[in-house]
TrEMBL record:
Keywords assigned by UniProt, alphabetized: GTP-binding, Hydrolase, Membrane, Nucleotide-binding, Transmembrane, Transmembrane helix
Entry protein name: Interferon-inducible GTPase 1
GO molecular function, one term: GTP binding
InterPro entries: G_IRG_dom, Immunity-related_GTPase-like, IRG, P-loop_NTPase
Ranges annotated as spanning the membrane: 260-288, 349-370
Highest taxon of source: Eukaryota
Gene3D superfamilies listed in its UniProt record: P-loop containing nucleotide triphosphate hydrolases (3.40.50.300)
Domain (IRG-type G): residue spans on this chain: 45-224
PANTHER family: INTERFERON-INDUCIBLE GTPASE (PTHR32341), INTERFERON-INDUCIBLE GTPASE 5 (PTHR32341:SF10)
Length: 401
């Protein structure tokens, strides 16, 4: 049964090292409190992303698109008014993640870079996105140089690619790939010698974030953030971006897998519910909450929703199988997939468990069950994504015919 856990060694070692440090500093008695705080940590980490560029670059539309909200939704950035001061827009599912719409340099309130740096407080942002709908200006490059001198991450982004594609399609010699290559090359040339080390410009459409470089940009931002900020933003990205990027999907999967050890430890220390057919109890409410997180994070539609109803019957049945919401349903799953032998193997796989939690068998049952539940949700999520992709391709073929 050890093969069920092959591949977990790296993240288990990292988490165990963190826990061992806590034991050394505070002792075993406070482990329960530490574990529960650790589980909530991703929701309390602050992430501040600056969105810069001249008026008309699409900053407000981008701020809405990355948060997956419509321009008319509550909390949306105003796409009709120019920004006159740094304005934060919180992520709808995590208010500690904010995208800041910054004013442009060269306006009456921000006539030069020195004034801009002082008023905008560049030091408080974790990463910078510099947008243009045409070509990067001298002020864009001055700002980028300042950010680079502060050793902060920044990305050059060319927006409104959908408009370029529509215009290009009117030509008899339409070649989207060649057009995108030309735009990217022109942007890099526009950056000049001062940014010769910049090898990429992200080409995006704020109205079609499932196309071109939007998801790749999201991943690049994630890669530039420290561990806990990266985890926080990863678990806050919405369904559309998650579905359009294998890398982001895998990142979410890894983040959720990294929580299993902590959930198992918290479950063993919680209110245990006996499971008929197994001589072990678990914190069923905690497991059910985590399973709900799996479904939402990996993009499964809610049972009964419009998206759910449109799925093929076989896919709907798969979604229902992992839509476990009651203790009775959870018990059936645990008995079906968990035996005392697998529980004992899970306990043996994790070093020091007996020293950290009072109920090692409960830990093992939870640890093993969550692995199986996450794997099941992942498989169904990939099925849902494939069906959506196939449907979109079919509709595109129909339009071309």
């Amino acid at each position: 049964m050890a093969s069920d856990f092959v591949g977990d060694d790296e993240w288990v070692n990292v988490e165990m090292e963190e826990l061992q440090r806590e034991i050394d500093e505070s002792g075993v008695a406070k482990i329960d409190e530490f574990v529960r705080k650790r589980l909530q940590q991703w929701e309390s980490v602050e992430v501040n992303i600056a969105v810069a560029g001249d008026s008309g670059a699409g900053k407000s539309s981008f701020t809405n698109a990355i948060r997956e909200i419509c321009d008319e939704d509550e909390g949306a950035a105003d796409v009709t008014e120019s920004t006159t001061e740094p304005t934060p827009y919180a992520h709808p599912t995590n208010s500690n993640i904010k995208f800041w719409d910054l004013p442009g340099i060269g306006t009456p309130d921000y006539p030069d870079l020195e004034t801009y740096v002082e008023k905008v407080q560049l030091e408080k942002y974790d990463a910078f996105l510099i947008l243009t709908a045409t070509r990067f200006t001298k002020n864009d490059l001055l700002l980028a140089e300042k950010i680079r001198s502060m050793q902060k991450s920044f990305f050059f982004i060319r927006t409104k690619i959908d408009e370029n594609v529509r215009a290009e399609k009117r030509k008899q010699s339409y070649d989207e790939k060649a057009m995108l290559t030309k735009i990217r090359s022109n942007c890099l040339k526009n950056l000049g010698d001062h940014f010769s080390n910049v090898k990429d410009v992200f080409l995006i459409s704020n109205h079609e974030p499932d196309k071109w470089d939007f998801a790749r940009l999201a991943q690049a931002i994630l890669d530039a953030l420290p561990k806990y900020q990266r985890q926080s933003l990863t678990l806050s990205l919405g369904k559309a971006i998650t579905r359009s990027s294998e890398e982001i999907f895998q990142g979410k999967l890894d983040a959720l897998k990294g929580r299993i050890w902590w959930i198992a430890a918290a479950s063993a220390a919680g209110a245990l519910v006996p499971i008929p057919g197994l001589s072990v109890g678990v914190d069923a409410a905690l497991i059910l909450r985590e399973l709900s997180l799996y479904r939402s994070q990996l993009g499964l539609p809610e049972v009964g929703s419009a998206e759910f109803v449109k799925l093929h019957l076989a896919t709907r049945e798969k979604v229902l199988q992992v839509s476990i919401t009651t203790v009775a349903q959870l018990s059936v799953f645990l008995v079906s997939y968990t035996t005392e032998a697998t529980i004992e193997e899970a306990v043996r796989f994790i070093p020091f468990v007996g020293l950290l939690v009072a109920s090692t068998m409960s830990f093992g049952a939870t640890y093993y069950a969550l692995h199986k539940l996450l794997e099941a949700v992942k498989d169904v999520a990939l099925l849902v994504i494939k069906e959506a992709t196939d449907k979109a391709a079919s509709e595109l073929d129909s339009k071309m015919d």
